[in-house]
Amino acid sequence: MTLKPPPLKNDCFALPAGVNWTPVDTALALLKERLHPVTGIETVVLAHALGRVLAEDVVAQRANPPLPNSAVDGYGFAGGLADGEHVIPLMQGRAAAGLAFEGEVSAGQAIRILTGASLPKGVDTVILEEDVTTDGQAIACRGPLKTGANARRAGEDVEADEVILTAGQKLRPADLALAAATGLSELMVRRSLRVGVLSTGDELVDSGETARPGQIFDANRPMLLSLAAQLGYTPVDLGRVEDDRAVLRARMDSAAQDVDVILTSGGASAGDEDHMSALLRESGAMQEWRIAVKPGRPLALAMWQGVPVFGLPGNPVAAFVCSLVFACPAMSVLAGGNWRAPQGFQLPAGFSKKKKPGRREYLRARIRAGQVEVFQSEGSGRISGLSWGEGLVELGDGAQEIAPGDMVTFYPYESFGL
Ligand SMILES: Nc1nc2c(c(=O)[nH]1)N[C@H]1C(S)=C(S)[C@@H](COP(=O)(O)OP(=O)(O)OC[C@H]3O[C@@H](n4cnc5c(N)ncnc54)[C@H](O)[C@@H]3O)O[C@H]1N2
Ligand code: MOO
User: Fold this and answer.
1) What is the ipTM for the molecules in this complex?
2) 0.90 cut: is pTM over it?
3) Best substitution site from 204, 226, 269 to test ligand 1's pocket, by max atoms within 8 Å of Cβ?
4) Which intervals hold domain MoaB/Mog (predicted)?
5) Which of 10, 214, 324, 328 is most buried, with most CB under 10 Å away?
6) Measured from the CA of 381, which atom of ligand 2 is nearest?
7) Which ligand is nearest to the Cα of residue 268, counting in written order?
8) Do 304 and 285 form a contact (C-beta atoms < 8 A)?
9) Pocket around ligand 1 at a 6 A CB cut-off
10) What's the CA-to-centroid distance between 399 and ligand 1, angstroms?
11) Residue 20 C-alpha to ligand 1 middle, in angstroms?
12) Closest ligand to 266 CA?
């Protein structure tokens, strides 16, 4: 079954009139409000569900555990034990996981029972085998032991018909364990978001090619393609286009037939060779977002034949930071998932920094010895700092003077879904 959601509106990226420098929170709120899922729905078996986005709430088909059972290897009987010594006669037979004891255990008798075995009729309490001596005919043990000790109630984990997973969740190994345990073999998920990645610029060559002096290797494309893959989407390599508007237009036209969202990098600002922003502007649905963020001022958002385009800045650090902060949550929604606000951690700074008001700043950072270290340079072309880093420090929109030991907000890369 394939069910398709309606297309996005052409003006979904329009900014409110009169806003010149859009604060990060306003930009995020607009994306959250305007975007909606663009992917259809399909049914997949659990083996193919990892990383997929749930299309509907999932209800347990049966309880976990389905029947009361033993949490330990030991001996089962009815009722607890009073303080003091006890000798309890043993019934013949045993209860094992998957091999139920069909008889009934009479009051005052015990039965050998193994971990995971359903409790036989007449058993509600289990004593650990380590706490027992036995000659095969009876067990000797010491109380007290509460009624119900070492026994697991039916449904104590999950009741049948309980909602176990909710629409919009991205499925993780633990979620698949829960679905399997509660009797599900297939799930309704969103079709995987197809993320097209395109690099622009005359100066670029692909790694592996020969670079003339003045040419540089395309770093953004491998970065953004692998980012899409790591987020659980289907990366689509749209290649690299020189600063030629006609070629760029043709590439965008064919991409729009094939993908759900396009990430481009380079040519996003307003220079002579910034063909990406010029082309998007021509298309009519271009919104040039001047976001009060560093790095990443020029972020071009547009609809190209109904497909949302994130025109990322060419500087790799800006492209990466803008992807994490803006494209990751936006793509999550396009993919049918929840809007993901990253989970930050308050940690003491291991650095000093004086920051001017007016822009939110993100620094490449990592945690060492309980403190946040930042990369030695804020240069937007310093790719080594992205690789050095394990997350970003966020400095608020206002002026800030940070001294070592002051608390700062650290977002691990993982908090953006990576
Ligand atoms: N006069 C102004 N110049 C610049 C401004 C400005 O406001 N006024 N903003 C600067 C900022 S901030 C950024 S970020 C860049 C953004 O420019 P573009 O998005 O147009 O990007 P390009 O000019 O094409 O490239 C910038 C830089 O990044 C390198 N690059 C591009 N693509 C890749 C790639 N795939 N892999 C590796 N490196 C790439 C490119 O060679 C340039 O060095 O504009 C500033 N200028
Ligand atoms: O986007 Mo630019 O790299 O802010 O520095």
Assistant:
1) 0.94
2) no
3) 269
4) 196-333
5) 324
6) 3
7) 1
8) yes
9) 199, 201, 203-204, 216, 218-221, 265-269, 271, 274, 297-298, 313-316, 318, 380-381
10) 26
11) 21
12) 1
DSSP string, 97-140: TTB---SBPPTT-EEEE-TTPBPPBT--EEEEGGGEEE-SSEEE
Q: How far is the CA of 315 from the centre of ligand 1 (A)?
A: 5
- List residues near ligand 2 (CB under 6 A): 294-297, 313, 315, 318, 380
Measured CA to CA, the distance from residue 377 to residue 315 in angstroms comes to 14
- Closest to 260 measured CA to CA, from 62, 16, 44, 36: 36
Minimum-distance ligand 1 atom for the alpha carbon of 267: 20
Which ligand has the nearest atom to the CA of 361?
A: 2
Rounded Cα distance, 24 and 293, in Å: 7
Q: How far apart are CA 166 and CA 188, in angstroms?
A: 11
Render each residue's pLDDT in the chain as its tens digit; 418 residues.
Answer: 567 888 887 776 666 666 678 889 988 998 999 899 999 999 999 999 999 999 999 999 999 999 999 999 999 999 999 999 999 999 999 999 999 999 999 999 999 999 999 999 999 999 999 999 999 999 999 999 999 999 999 999 999 999 999 999 999 999 999 999 999 999 999 999 999 999 999 999 999 999 999 999 999 999 999 999 999 999 999 999 988 889 999 999 999 999 999 999 987 776 666 788 888 887 766 676 778 899 987 788 888 999 999 999 999 999 999 999 999 999 999 999 999 899 999 999 999 999 988 899 999 999 999 999 999 999 999 999 999 999 999 999 999 999 999 999 999 999 999 9
CA of 384 to the centre of ligand 1 (A): 17
Q: Please say whether the beta carbons of 101 and 120 come within 8 A.
A: yes
- Ordered by where they begin, the domains of the chain are 24-40+194-335 (3.40.980.10), 44-50+55-64+163-190 (no CATH), 69-152 (2.170.190.11), 345-416 (2.40.340.10)
Ligand 1, atom 4, lies closest to the CA of: 269
**Tokens 């006669």 -> residue:** 89
**Residue 303: in which H helix or E strand, if any?**
strand 298-304
Q: Which of 293, 315, 362 to mutate to test the pocket of ligand 1 (most atoms within 8 A of CB)?
A: 315
